[in-house]
Amino acid sequence: MPLIPKLGRGRGIAVVEVYGTIGGRVRESVYARLFSDVATSKRYRALLLDIQSPGGSAAGSELLYYSLKKVAAQKPVVAHIRNLGASGGYYLACAANRVTALPTSLVGSIGVIYARPILEQLLAKAGVEFSVVKGGRLKDMGGFWRGPTEEESEKLQELIGEVYENFLSVVKDGRSLPDEQARELATGELFTARRGRELGLVDDLIDFEQSLQLAAQLAGIESGKARPRWLRPRRALSEKLTGRPANRAIGANLLGVDLQRLLNGGLYYLEPSALLGSLDD
Fold this sequence. Notes:
37% of the residues lie in helices and 20% in strands. The protein is of the alpha/beta class. The strands form 3 sheets. Strands 1, 2, 4, 5, 6, 8, 9 and 10 form an 8-stranded mixed β-sheet that branches.
């Protein structure tokens, strides 16, 4: 559990940094506990969410989103996007009362992607064959040892469509956008924050310090009296020594996503370029 410093009475603004890939450096269970602390503690009057993330796991993004909604039900939440708040990173921002960013920050990438390698040709060249015995005709759907059938591709597209609609509903609710307008924005593309404000994705073009003052204002704290406190997860000894998350060994990453996850495939609220080198490295 994170350490929460003692604060002056009634002036605390919790600041939580979401830096990196959700499901990677941003570990869902750890950050969910941080947000729970903020929601229930009387020492904090507001939360400033400091986002620098290309997104990540769809399930992880949803978990943190609902954790943030619980905070927002109790006290003001401001999401400040530094350079990048894409896909799952933007998903989290939709839980906030206000979204701020610098004009040239990048926001959006609203959509879902499924990524997995197909190693059929590589395995054949290496003389490796897979023997698969299954119960259920689609049980090996998504196996990396072969490409998908036409039926499997259709099934997968249905699954992706359902998760996409979930993301779309979060954007519509969080940004108070009509369905048609939200769908026009949910193409997976990135926008500058300046353009994002015109489209309804961003509220204010301001920096971090101004976002902190905005959080204080929303919390009813007198100007200049807010006391920000950064809440960060405890780092394991191995992470302090290597600079890498404790749940990742050196050399375990492949193209910014660990090898096991890449082989398994998965649904991601992730800006695609992050697959070639994530913020976790």
